[in-house]
Write a structure and sequence with these properties.
The protein is an alpha+beta fold. Strands 3, 5, 6, 8, 13, 14, 15 and 17 form an eight-stranded antiparallel β-sheet that branches. The protein is flat. The relative contact order is 0.15.
């Protein structure tokens, strides 16, 4: 004789819960795939715009046109470009080859590629692989590394035996002191090494020594007058060779100095206060 009592309340609840969980998983996968698709579309768009600007410059005796509408009127683009996710396009380099970056998908087309001969460390910052978080909290979000607003957040990568190298970071921030870039650094209870960050007025970059928990400014340089520090992604780099230090922003030299305090050390990221910081990519090369 067949038992036709049907589902019990427990069984019915289990089926409903499983259905909801499955739906959430499917939606999460769909959202991730949709985000990757928009990022790919944005990359394709920026590549086309940069190539169009380069072609215009070549034809017009290296005259660079940064206006998207101007490129459309000149017949080099069929429409004004727009990020499918609503990001803002910013020219990082207005020479051939030009560089166009997005405030949301910023460095994906300029993320450093594999170069076994010269790369010491490379990260697209979509995960924490290779990073050692020593203070606060860092977390990947939308393909970037972010730090909580407030408090001290420090993450190291690489070897304390590193001596001469170039550290390149592509990052953006909303407010505050912006990204802090550590080099030739270590964390033996108290942070030590060099720290590159914005000056208090936001119009300069400065390098300080960190030792015994204190910072001492070593050198600084003014940024270009039209440099918009907050709200746009920028390329920051420091090259250290022996006692020589060279600091650049968006591939343009800002200042250089010599100092003998630290001869080797790892690299790292430093965020303090409400910076609204997002790191797009990190590269260390020799």
């Amino acid at each position: 004789m067949t038992d036709n009592k049907g589902f019990t309340r427990f069984e019915l609840g289990f089926v409903i819960a499983a259905t909801v969980l499955f739906g959430l998983l499917v939606f999460k996968q769909y959202a991730a795939a949709s985000g990757r698709s928009r990022a790919a579309s944005c990359l394709s768009m920026r590549t086309a715009v940069a190539l169009a600007a380069d072609r215009y410059a070549v034809v017009h005796d290296n005259l660079f046109i940064s206006s998207f509408a101007g490129l459309v009127r000149a017949g080099y683009l069929d429409r004004v470009p727009a990020c499918p996710s609503g990001g803002e396009y910013v020219w990082l380099s207005t020479g051939v080859p030009s560089r166009l970056i997005c405030s949301l998908h910023g460095a994906q087309d300029y993320a450093p590629g594999a170069d076994p001969e010269n790369d010491l460390f490379v990260s697209g910052c979509d995960n924490l692989s290779g990073f050692k978080v020593s203070r606060g909290k860092w977390q990947p979000q939308s393909g970037k590394l972010t730090a909580p607003d407030g408090g001290l957040n420090v993450a190291f990568f690489g070897s304390e035996r590193w001596r001469d190298y170039t550290l390149t970071v592509i990052a953006s921030h909303v407010a505050g002191r912006g990204p802090g870039i550590c080099y030739r650094c270590a964390d033996g209870g108290a942070l030590s090494g060099y720290l590159l960050e914005y000056g208090e007025n936001g119009r300069e970059l400065a390098v300080s020594r960190m030792a015994d928990g204190t910072k001492t400014r070593v050198a600084s340089g003014l940024l270009p007058r039209n440099f918009r520090a907050a709200g746009a992604p920028h390329i920051y780099s420091v090259t250290v060779t022996g006692d020589s230090h060279v600091v650049k922003a968006d591939d343009a030299p800002v200042f250089a100095f010599t100092d003998t305090a630290f001869q080797s050390g790892a690299a790292g990221l430093f965020a303090e206060g409400g910076a609204g910081l997002a790191i797009d990519s990190v590269r260390v090369s020799k």
